[in-house]
Design goal:
The protein is an alpha+beta fold and about 350 residues long. The protein has 2 domains: about 230 residues, P-loop containing nucleotide triphosphate hydrolases (Rossmann fold, 3-Layer(aba) Sandwich), CATH 3.40.50.300; about 120 residues, Beta Barrel (OB fold (Dihydrolipoamide Acetyltransferase, E2P)), CATH 2.40.50.140. Helix content is about 25%, strand content about 35%. It contains 9 helices and 20 strands. β17 and β18 form a beta hairpin. It is elongated, with a radius of gyration of 25 Å. The structure holds adenosine-5'-triphosphate and magnesium ion. The site of magnesium ion has 2 residues, from α1.
């Protein structure tokens, strides 16, 4: 039976060092939420708190409306899948997978049936009697997954489960994890520092930094509409240009950046634009044009690199250094002048106080 997870205003310390501050997270029933962030930001700590391996300094954790905060780890009934598999080396694949069922007092015949069905599901039926030492990394990972799923826990938590696997297997396994998680409708928290992995597998992603959640949203929203400068940089907006509105004219505004650079922006594209804001765009959304009559940011082109789909230019502008792309059909000379033209659909606006 699956249940919603609610983490409420958790603060956590190791000794006297604060590692999580006032962290709240709601994971709906059947939802998969990833925690994504750089090494040391507190992802594993968050899982340890939910699993009961660490006590919060303050705050509350509920699963299906029941308070877990003071419940010992072994009574929390959570399926865990870790990077290092943590399989029992002297037990067969089938015994590893059946271990949790045995512990929970499931009758042997029922246990055998459920283990066989789960091994079938993860494609390991033919390896049931092997020892973990006789398996590849991907096979071990599937045993760990089967072992967590077979107990049909109300909550599954994954901590970098794929980081020991090669690139191709990582992609195959994340699809497998997502399919199994969806089929069972198990509420899940998935930790990774790989953005593509998090975005591809999750219903929503929490981007973490220094013990806090900077934004929690769908992958699409995070990618296109980051809420603040930290998240914008994290999802690849290379250019963050501080601007202020100097003129409002119906559906358009004129804004000025450093060095007197002026741009016209349409309100229908951006919605309301505050007086002070940051224009964020990826290099793909800032086109280097040799047509100096165009409205854009005047630039001197520096280093040109070839990306396969475009050329990329390091640019010097009155508004600071910027990164722009230009078409393959027309490579521009390094040292030459250009206008950098923002593509409105690929730009977003950040309120000044978040930049
Ligand atoms: N047992 C511990 N004692 C003291 N400090 C710890 C302990 N475990 C982790 N920390 C510190 O707490 C912070 C958060 O660690 P955590 O393991 O949650 O990071 P993480 O986001 O999982 O990082 P990674 O991606 O490297 O696994 C780090 O600064 C880390 O050094
Ligand atoms: Mg970790």
């Amino acid at each position: 039976m699956t249940k919603a997870l609610s983490i409420q205003s958790i603060t956590a310390h190791y000794g006297t060092t604060k590692v999580l501050e006032d962290l709240s997270l709601e994971v709906a029933e059947g939802e998969l939420v990833s925690l994504l962030g750089a090494s040391g930001c507190g992802k594993t700590t968050t899982l340890r708190l939910v699993a009961g391996f660490l006590q919060p300094t303050s705050g509350r954790i509920q699963l299906g409306g029941v308070d877990l905060t003071r419940l010992p780890a072994h009574r929390r009934d959570i399926g865990l899948v870790f990077q290092n598999y943590a399989l029992f080396p002297h037990m067969s694949v089938a015994d590893n997978v059946g271990f949790g069922l045995k512990q929970r007092g499931v009758a042997p015949a029922e246990k055998t049936k459920r283990v066989a069905a789960m091994l079938e599901r993860v494609g390991l039926a033919h390896l049931a009697s092997r020892l973990p030492g006789e398996l590849s990394g991907g096979q071990k990972q599937r045993v760990a997954l089967a072992r967590a799923l077979v107990i049909e826990p109300p909550l599954l938590m994954f901590d970098e489960p794929l980081s020991n696997l090669d690139a191709k297997l990582r992609v195959d396994m994340r699809v497998e994890i997502r399919q199994l998680q969806r089929a069972n409708g198990t509420t899940s928290v998935y930790v990774t520092h790989d953005q593509e992995e998090a975005f591809s597998i999750s219903d929503r992603v929490a981007i973490m930094h220094a013990g806090r959640i900077m934004q929690l949203d769908t992958p699409e929203t995070l990618y296109q509409r980051p809420a603040n400068a930290f998240v914008a940089r994290f999802v690849g907006f290379e250019n963050l240009i501080p601007m202020r509105v100097v003129e409002r004219d119906g559906a358009k505004i004129t804004a000025e950046a450093a060095g007197g650079v002026r741009l016209t922006l349409g309100l229908e594209q951006f919605g309301a634009i505050p007086d002070s804001f940051t224009l964020a765009c990826r290099a793909d959304g800032l086109v280097a044009s040799p047509d100096l009559a165009m409205e854009g940011i005047p630039a001197t082109l520096g280093l040109r690199t070839y990306l396969g789909r475009a050329y990329q230019y390091q640019c010097d502008t009155p508004a600071g250094p910027l990164l722009a792309n230009g078409p393959l059909t027309r490579p521009l000379e390094m040292g030459g002048q250009a206008k950098l033209v923002p593509v409105p659909e690929q730009c977003t606006i950040l309120a000044a106080e978040t930049a």
